[in-house]
Each structure stands twice: as structure tokens, then as C-alpha cells.
Amino acid sequence: MAHLITKHDPFHIHKILGVFVLLSFLYRLFNVGRYGIAFPKTENKWFSVCSVALHGVLSLSSLLLPLPKKRNFSSPMIWPEFRLHSIVFAMRHVICTIINLLQLWPTNFWANLVAKASIVLSTISLARLITENYGDKVKRTTNSMPYPRNVTKAEEKLVKNLYAQAQFHAVIQAIFEDPTASFMPILAIQAAPLLMTLVRKGKIGSYWYHRIYAISLWLPFAIYWWRFYLRTIDMGEIYWSANVARLVVLKLRFSGYNQEFAWAVGFFFLALGFEYLCPPFNHMVNNNIYYYCFFLTGYTILVSNIYFHLKSLLT
Predict the structure, then answer these.
(1) Which keywords does the record carry (predicted)?
(2) Which residues contact 296 (CB under 8 A, 6 or more apart)?
(3) What whole-number distance in Å separates Cα of residue 220 and Cα of residue 93?
(4) Rounded to an integer, what distance in angstroms lies between the CA atom of residue 269 and that of residue 277?
(5) By percentage, how much of the chain surpasses pLDDT 70?
(6) What is the pLDDT of the chain when averaged over all its residues?
(7) 152-161, pLDDT tens digit by residue?
(8) CB 179 within 8 A of CB 39
(9) 171: exposed, middle or buried (Cβ count in 10 Å: 0-12, 13-18, 19+)
(10) What are the backbone dihedrals phi and psi of residue 204, each rounded to the nearest 5 degrees, phi first?
(11) pLDDT, tens digit (0-9, with 9 covering 90-100), for 288-311
(12) Distances (CA, A) of 262 to 31, 90, 244
């Protein structure tokens, strides 16, 4: 088996950054568990900003490491297209989290919407440009991801669908004006290349890649429900965003529309909901009976989704 520490990272820059980022994640998760937010109000703002920026530096430092030019379709191993996608998506969340921490989003409703749409659509454009130059338009990251042999086609399709849902939710979480929400998807984004590296070096197999990656994808959703329980986040925006992602953006994508159109329509519905539907909804569910009804409903959906996602990978 290949060693984790090699001459490809002679000054251990990437590994040292990786250790700090891992500690950063653990610290943020501890804060969520204790306070319901990853960035406590008492924490120095610039410490928060620098700790988030470190995640971006880690992603960029991966460019120091050589990779095989061709993708391995027999096991989930990192390749150039995936690495560049990972950097772009991680930077989306790093930038949005820093904007949230420094409260830099425009206060005007339409300017705010344009700013957020610009970040999302520019990310999509960069990802497409990367695919055109380094990838394959047919054999994409998700649809051609190798799975263990005993995972059936039906189970594979279900897992891919849930992966896609989680990825679309991550886009929406990035533009939430809540630093905890915009930060947490970075865990899955940065866990994936680490897991692929471990597969390449023979430390874990395909099963463990999918198991750990699936858990990292669903962890932000579990955090939402914990935060609902602690009442450190409003429920209306989460419900509305989840339904826009699932019923509008995802359905348009599965119907063959390009991402720009799907997200343009999605942003329109997000804007309407955030402006007119979420405030009265949040006011209504502040009543304890309604609140816990919605909480239990959402929690049940979350648990069932995680179960169906993971059951084929845990047997």
C-alpha cells in the first residue's frame, strides 16, 4: 500500500493545512453542538474569517500535488477535473461564509439577489469550463462514480439521486445569510478528495468512500435539525429552500434544462418565498405546537432519507 506521506508534498504544506482544517471542523462542530452555531458571537471576527479562509488555502494547495491525467473508473480516485471542481465549490462556500461573517451582503433586496445569483452562476460557469477542458460531458463525476459490486442499479440510482439533492442543497446553503449554514457543506466538499486519495493509496475501499462521503453530505441536514431544536435558525427559509431545490431546480435539471436556466427560475422562487412566505411562516411556527409539528415532520423526512441513502452501502 502507498504511504500517506510522500515526496510529492516535500514541505508538507498540504498535510499541515489539512490537519489545521480538520481541527477547524472539529471546533466548529463542537460549537454547533454546544451553542447551535459554528461561529459564536463572542469569537473574534477576524479569527473566524482566517479560520474559514484556511479551508480555501487548503483547497488551493492541492494544486501542488501531481495527479494522473486520466480518471480511474474502477474506483473512486481523484483526477484533475474533480480536483478543480472541488476547489471551485469549496471557494464558493469560503467566500459566502466570509461575506456572512463580515455582513457584506447588500441590504437592498434585488441587489442582494443579484449578488448571490452571480456567485452561484459564476461557479456553475467555472465548473462547466473545467469539464470542457479536463473532463467528459457524458461520464460526469456523479453519474460515472464507481460503486461496490453488490450495489444494485436501482440502489445506485437512488444514491446518485440523493447525492444530487444534497449537492443542490449545498448551493442554496452557500447563499444563506447564516455563516454556519454557508460553512458546513465545505465538510463534504473537502472530505471527498481526501477520501479519494485514501482510496488511491489503498487505505480504504470504495465502500468506505461512499459511506463516509454520504455521512458528510447529510451532516449539515442533521445540524439543521439540531439548530431547529435549539432555535438558533429560522425554519421557514430552510423549508422553502429545500422545496425549491427539490421541486424546481432539481426537476428542471432532470428534465434536461441547463443549470443556468434551472437556477434562474430557482432564484425567482427563492426571492418570492424569502420576501413574502417565510416571514409569516416563521411567525406561525413560533407557536410551540406548530414548531414541534414541523420539527418532527422534518426530522422524520431527514432520517428516512439518510436511511434509504445509506442502507445499500451499509450491508
Answers:
(1) Membrane, Transmembrane, Transmembrane helix
(2) none
(3) 13
(4) 10
(5) 81
(6) 81
(7) 777 777 777 7
(8) yes
(9) buried
(10) -140, 165
(11) 655 666 556 665 666 666 666 566
(12) 35, 21, 10
296 vs 298: CA distance, rounded Å: 5
**What is the distance between the alpha carbons of residues 81 and 90, in angstroms, rounded to a whole number?**
14
Residue 285 confidence class, pLDDT cut points 50, 70, 90: low
Enter the pTM of the model.
0.85
Residue type, 51: S
pLDDT grade for 1, boundaries at 50, 70 and 90? very low
The C-alpha atoms of residue 221 and residue 92 are separated, in whole angstroms, by 19
Write the DSSP assignment of 144-202 as a string of letters: T----TTS-HHHHHHHHHHHHHHHHHHHHHHTSS-HHHHHTTHHHHHHHHHHHHHHHTT
pLDDT at residue 12, as a whole number = 79
Residue type at 103 in one-letter notation:
Q
pLDDT at residue 289 in the model: 59
Tell me what pLDDT residue 66 has. Answer: 81
User: At residue 208, what is the residue type?
Assistant: W
- Candidate from 8-12, 49-53, 63-67, 270-274 with smallest mean pLDDT: 8-12
DSSP code at position 65: S
Which residue's C-alpha cell is 460526469? 140
The DSSP line for 78-112 is --HHHHHHHHHHHHHHHHHHHHHHHT-S-SSHHHH
- Asked if residues 185 and 93 have their Cβ atoms less than 8 Å apart, the reply is yes
Q: Which three cell numbers stand for residue 90?
A: 469549496
Instruction: Output the pLDDT for position 230.
Output: 82
Residues 135, 81 contacting (CB under 8 angstroms): yes
Amino acid sitting at position 24: S
**Amino acid identity of 273?**
G
d(C-alpha 203, C-alpha 197), whole Å: 9
Residue 117 C-alpha cell reads as 445569483
